[in-house]
Amino acid sequence: IVFSFLVLAGIAVALKQAGLAVGWGIQFQQPLFLSALALIMALFAYNLLGFFEVPLPDFVGRLAARGAGDHHGLWGNFATGALATLLATPCSAPFLGSSVGFALARGPVEIFLIFAALGLGLALPYLLVAAAPRLVAWLPRPGAWMVALRRILGLLLAGTAVWLLTVLAVQLGIGAALLTGGLLAGLGFVLWARPRVLAEAARGQRLAASALATLLAVAAFALPAGLPGARQPAAGPESVEALGWRPLDAAAIGGLVAQGQVIFVDVTADWCITCQVNKKLVLTADTVGTRLQAPGIVRMRGDWTLPSEAISDYLAGFGRYGIPFNAVYGPGAPQGLALPEILTEEAVLAALARAAGG
Questions:
Q1: What are the CA-CA distances from residue 202 to residues 51, 194, 198, 207 (Å)?
Q2: CB 82 within 8 A of CB 221
Q3: C-alpha to C-alpha distances, 340 to 88, 312, 337, nearest whole angstrom
Q4: Which of 78, 85, 276, 358 could serve as a FRET partner for 286 with CA atoms 20 to 30 Å apart?
Q5: Digit-coded pLDDT (tens) for 101-135
Q6: Average pLDDT over residues 78-87
Q7: Which of 224, 231, 198 is nearest to 212 (CA)?
Q8: Backbone angles phi and psi of 342, in degrees to 5
Q9: What is the pTM (predicted TM-score) of this model?
Q10: Helix axis angle, 145-172 relative to 174-197, nearest 10°?
């Protein structure tokens, strides 16, 4: 986990040195990253559901028998920590935004130090158990319940893969997402059928099934690379305006404020779970939803599902490099009031009243 955070820090520093925009979770803007992560989630799900097992090489058992320790699990543990880091990066709420924003606004030393601290924070539960092994006694004992839990976890991972495909559908279109999903489903069927249908089959048939599984996995990952011209803005002006929102236009905010308008800005993305929770529980709730539709209030939405230099620059103006992000402008707050990442009705209504000059 700590190493993975340092890798992210190195990438952020390299991008800044190259003069490119940086942000927390920007890897989710890349279809190849989404397809790779969906493939990983699907493979983990199939493994937990019992479709296939990963046998350890014979030399591992011999090393263990010689008292070489548990080193055969180190690479697996390392990969698990790296995956945990990747899955933790879509959103910056509730406390990560200010830390990442501070780091990305500073130099390489600050970026590496703060990202290392973030990694230590995420790894803290593992460090506590390592420092005090007696904590393991608090964990439930192994038993039959683990089989049921394994299946539940497999279904949850499969659901995560489906969610990643929905984000891919926004970026590349529903057809590409369905095709990728079909390839992953076919991969699951081959993995499930291979030990059952081909248990007594000839070695050549088993190798052919393994080759087919590999081909399906590679195809599911590489599909976005074959659709270079398919990426479209996740929420273009027409779709945003259909929901009653204007596309984010930072240059127009000053003029609207001069006219006495109150502007509510929502920067969101389909891969940001906290953004969707904010919309569902606060922004579309009766009280706030009605207030935002009142005369004199302009709603602007910036969709960061795909890379946008304009949105990156807008966030950087507030010292923010991650989402969710909301701000309110008005005669009483011409420079804008940044809201907390986790929205509440009280916070939004108070900011609207203050921006209006109340």
A1: 20, 12, 8, 9
A2: no
A3: 19, 18, 10
A4: 358
A5: 667 667 788 889 989 998 999 899 888 988 998 88
A6: 82
A7: 198
A8: -90, 110
A9: 0.68
A10: 150
Q: Which residues contact 135 (CB under 8 A, 6 or more apart)?
A: 128, 129
Q: How far apart are CA 267 and CA 27, in angstroms?
A: 17
Contact 15/80 with Cβ under 8 angstroms? no
User: What is the pLDDT confidence band of residue 90, given thresholds at 50, 70 and 90?
Assistant: low
Is the distance from CB of 264 to CB of 292 less than 8 angstroms?
yes
Amino acid occupying residue 167: V
End-to-end CA distance of the chain: 47
Strand order in the sheet with 246-247: 246-247, 297-303, 262-268, 325-330, 333-338
In the structure encoding, which two tokens stand for residue 120, read together? 């230590």
Other residues' Cβ atoms within 10 Å of the Cβ of residue 301: 21
CA 182 to each of CA 162, 187, 206, 208, 310: distance values in angstroms, whole numbers, following the listed order: 11, 8, 22, 20, 35
